[in-house]
Amino acid sequence: MPVEFSNVREALFALGVACITFILTVLWGDPFLEVLRRLRIGKRIRIDGPESHFAKLGTPTMGGFLFIVPVVAVTLVLNLVSLVRPVTGRSILLPLGAMLAYAALGAYDDWQGIHGRRAKSGEGILGRYKFLIQVLIGLVIASILHFGFGHRSLAIPGYPQTINLSPWLYIPIVIFVITATTNAVNMTDGLDGLAGLVVSSAFLAYGLIALLQGQIYLSRFCFVMVGALFAFLWFNVYPAALFMGDVGSMGLGAALAVVAFLTGQWALLVLICCVPLAETASVMIQVASAKLSRKYLGRDIRPFKMTPLHHHFEQLGWSEPQITQRFWLISILSAMLGILLAIL
């Protein structure tokens, strides 16, 4: 099938915007790092983590602002330009709003983990309160998706027609997926460069899917996210000079989930985000195995040496770069397969 000139032009425009976002983010990276150091916003290490991570103590965190601010700035500029020439659409406003809402929650959690009452253990707000707020924000987003944007479809690979779901089913699914993706990305953010590489691959996949489906504005947003994340990785790859914190990981997870729902290809999140899914599954399996084995066998049986999953491989002797690079390769392959299934 011949490639349409308009698609090539839109792809080039999206790549150009991604490059501009990358340059802007890198340029303000050093001043931003200096601000974090002056404010003494340093990483706290939980005592139940690997001993090798104690060397990271004091590394600036809350680095998610490094890519969130340029993404918002570029989006606002494109909206201003659209008064003259249409370069954005309302489809980017919802993932942008979701990112900001969850980033705000993550920022508060990060701040409490550094300067709050539970700062000595590196913990922020209580998990049940954070989960409740996540669900409430997810409810607002799900309502906007369904009643505001009219989304309720599910695309199944290989099946030519989309399936329309009732609001009583669609809205709970949206809340669950957004909350699950947000926490999955948060769990993945445990090694230098890991979350940034994995999530940038996922945004790239959904950016191409959106482009192939004619969702030009949404595709541009995804490429802006990729450019900003690549710039963040400039400072976050091993050995990291900056961590994204909950402000970054929670914002990324929410934005990615909303993008997936806007494309209708949200079922592919299981594949495209297989690494965050595996990280989350490892924690659930570890906890369930420990509780059940103590209750029924009288002894503690744990299938993993440590969770999330990347810590298990650390305990096996893999280095951080090895784990990050291998998990990234898996993410790239799963993203490629996800794009293939989306166009079947």
Characterise this structure.
Strands 1-2 form a two-stranded antiparallel sheet. The chain is globular. It has helices spanning 5-27, 29-38, 65-81, 93-115, 127-148, 167-188, 194-212, 216-236, 245-263, 269-272, 274-296, 309-315, 320-342; strands at residues 153-154, 163-164. 68% of the residues lie in helices and 1% in strands. A hairpin with an 8-residue loop joins strand 1 (153-154) and strand 2 (163-164). The model has no long low-confidence stretch (mean pLDDT 89). It has 13 helices and two strands.
List the keywords.
mainly alpha, 344 residues, single chain
Quick summary:
With 344 residues, the chain is mostly helical.
Low-confidence stretches: none
Instruction: Compute the average pLDDT.
Output: 89
Cross-sheet strand order for the largest sheet: 1-2
The secondary structure category is mainly alpha
| Cα Rg | 20 Å
* N to C succession of SSEs: HHHHHEEHHHHHHHH
User: What proportion of the residues form beta strands (DSSP E)?
Assistant: under 5%
Number of strands: 2
Q: Tally the helices.
A: 13
Total domains:
1
Shape: globular
Main pleated-sheet profile: 2 strands, antiparallel
Query: Which percent bin holds the helix content?
Result: 55-70%
**Ends distance:** 14 Å
